[in-house]
Amino acid sequence: MLKIVRVLLVEDHEELARTVAAGLRREGMAVDVVLDGHAALVNAAVNDYDVIVLDRDLPGLHGDEVCRSLVQSGHPARVLMLTAAGAIDDRVTGLGIGADDYLPKPFAYAELVARIRALARRSQRALRPVLVHDDLRLDPAARTATRAGRRLLLSPKEFAVLELLLAAEGAAVSAEELLEHAWDEFADPFTQTVKVTISRLRRKLGDPPLIETVPQAGYRI
């Protein structure tokens, strides 16, 4: 099943980290933020990330050491390394220790998003560019969804949940799976967050109803 892109952003500049994380969330990604290398390794050990955006020049534990540890442990996440140094030698070093991609600062935000999506695709099963069920169409790349030709105005979380349900191709998706893949680590598993989002999504999709509740299993289209 398709996973919403889950990102760990490791950046010691707190204001930059907040700004970048907010932008990635608007793109429909689930983003966790840590400010140092030690916290990065702790989070990576307990959470399932698709991409780790790693600042190289971290205090305490250097980004190079974080990358080496991730590679040696066999962590499946792709690593996009950020650094203020844009020299060829620095890029060669970063890639040589196991980073999958390299982006010098300052960077264009659109390029960062494109690189994260490209890295995430390497570890996910390829899906049709547009997900379709009857008169419902969802285009993940364009971030658009329509039903019977009518544009659906969805929040990022509503879009993410609908994408997960369509990608499941008729299989039930549990509330726990939706919470894990569409929200970040601070989502409370005991809240009604998923139920509320499903309810809003049903209203926006209209009639006839498309989302079915499967007792003790979750939801499906």
From TrEMBL:
Location of the OmpR/PhoB-type domain: 128-221
Keyword Transmembrane helix: no
Residues annotated as domain Response regulatory: 6-120
Segments forming a coiled coil: none
Domain of life: Bacteria
DNA-binding region range list: 128-221
Keywords: DNA-binding, Phosphoprotein
Lineage, highest ranks first: Bacteria, Bacillati, Actinomycetota, Actinomycetes, Streptosporangiales
Name of the protein: Transcriptional regulatory protein CutR
PROSITE patterns on file: OMPR_PHOB, RESPONSE_REGULATORY
InterPro entries for this protein: CheY-like_superfamily, OmpR/PhoB-type_DNA-bd, Sig_transdc_resp-reg_receiver, WalR-like, WH-like_DNA-bd_sf
Residues recorded as bearing 4-aspartylphosphate in the entry: D55
Pfam family for this entry, one: Trans_reg_C
